[in-house]
C-alpha cells in the first residue's frame, strides 16, 4: 500500500484513470481521514502528498464519485486534473 509522500506510479491496467486532487489537509489526522474514505469506497489505489495537499488516485470510479468521496472528510477538495502515465 502506498504511503504518504510517495509519487504516483502506474499500478493498474490502462483502462483505469489516474487523477490528482487538492484536499485541504493540514495534519496526519487529515490524511488518515482521506485514507479511511477511500478504503471504504474500494477499487482505488492512491498516494497522499500531505505537504502539497494532493491526493493521486488510480481508479475506474468517475471523477465525480472520487471528489464526493474526498469531500466526506469535511475538507475542501477539488479536482486538479488527469495525470499522464509516464
Automatic annotation (TrEMBL):
InterPro entries: Copper_transport_ATOX1-like, HMA_dom, HMA_dom_sf
Keyword rRNA-binding found: no
Signal peptide: none
Pfam annotation, one family: HMA
UniProt keywords, alphabetically: Chaperone, Copper, Copper transport, Ion transport, Metal-binding, Transport
GO-annotated molecular function: copper chaperone activity; metal ion binding
Gene Ontology biological-process entries: copper ion transport
Domain HMA: from-to ranges: 16-78
Highest taxon above the source species: Eukaryota
A Gene Ontology cellular-component term: cytosol
Presence of the UniProt keyword Repressor in the record: no
Family statement: Belongs to the ATX1 family.
Function, in words: Binds and deliver cytosolic copper to the copper ATPase proteins. May be important in cellular antioxidant defense.
Binding partners and assembly: Homodimer. Interacts with ATP7B. Interacts with ATP7A. Interacts (via dimer form) with SLC31A1 (via C-terminal domain); this interaction improves ATOX1 stability and controls intracellular Cu(I) levels.
Protein name (database record): Copper transport protein ATOX1
Amino acid at each position: 500500500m502506498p504511503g504518504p509522500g510517495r509519487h504516483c506510479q502506474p499500478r493498474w491496467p490502462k483502462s483505469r484513470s489516474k487523477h490528482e486532487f487538492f484536499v485541504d489537509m493540514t495534519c496526519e489526522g487529515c490524511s488518515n481521514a482521506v485514507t479511511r474514505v477511500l478504503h471504504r469506497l474500494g477499487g482505488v489505489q492512491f498516494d497522499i502528498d500531505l505537504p502539497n495537499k494532493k491526493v493521486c488516485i488510480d481508479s475506474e470510479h468517475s471523477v465525480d464519485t472520487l471528489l464526493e468521496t474526498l469531500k466526506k472528510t469535511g475538507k475542501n477538495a477539488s479536482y486538479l486534473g488527469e495525470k499522464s502515465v509516464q
